[in-house]
Specification:
The chain has helices at residues 12-19, 29-42, 64-78, 89-112, 118-131, 136-141. It has 145 residues and is mostly helical. It has one domain (9-144).
Length: 145
């Protein structure tokens, strides 16, 4: 049984602007959540939430890159490779959701609520993350080196 990925309700307006409106940064909610989860993990910001808006079907995250993100974040957080098993899918998704919520909190504080053109600020954050000496995936996988 697949569990869908929750989107934190408190960031719904921001997510719509990031994913649906003119000048959007991400083409899908999935892409925004993946970036936010990586950012949240990178900055050690995991935030639980109770209220969610529309969910993103887990099937949308079935690409190799998406699965790697879920697995890497899950393993790095728990230090237990059995988190990759289907029996622990719901736990792995919850960890991802909470890091995504933490990343959305960072985006809201540093980008969305900041003065100026938030689109440019977010793009600068993405470029900085991508061009940094250590990428988010390197950071996630370094826990096992």
């Amino acid at each position: 049984m697949s569990v869908d990925v929750r989107r934190p309700r408190q960031y719904e307006e921001m997510l719509k602007k990031l994913c649906q409106e003119d000048g959007r940064i991400f083409t899908t909610y999935k892409d925004a959540l993946v970036f936010a989860a990586c950012l949240g993990f990178n900055r050690e910001r995991r935030v639980s939430f109770d209220k969610d808006s529309d969910r993103v079907r887990m099937e949308v995250f079935r690409g190799e890159y998406d699965a790697a993100i879920f697995h890497c974040i899950g393993i790095a957080h728990t230090l237990d490779p059995t988190i990759m098993g289907s029996a622990r899918e719901a736990e792995r998704i919850k960890i991802f959701e909470e890091y995504a919520c933490g990343g959305l909190e960072i985006i809201e504080a540093e980008v969305y609520a900041a003065s100026g053109q938030w689109e440019q600020t977010l793009l600068a954050m993405i470029v900085k993350q991508a061009k940094g000496e250590v990428s988010v995936l390197d950071d996630i996988t370094s826990a096992f080196a």
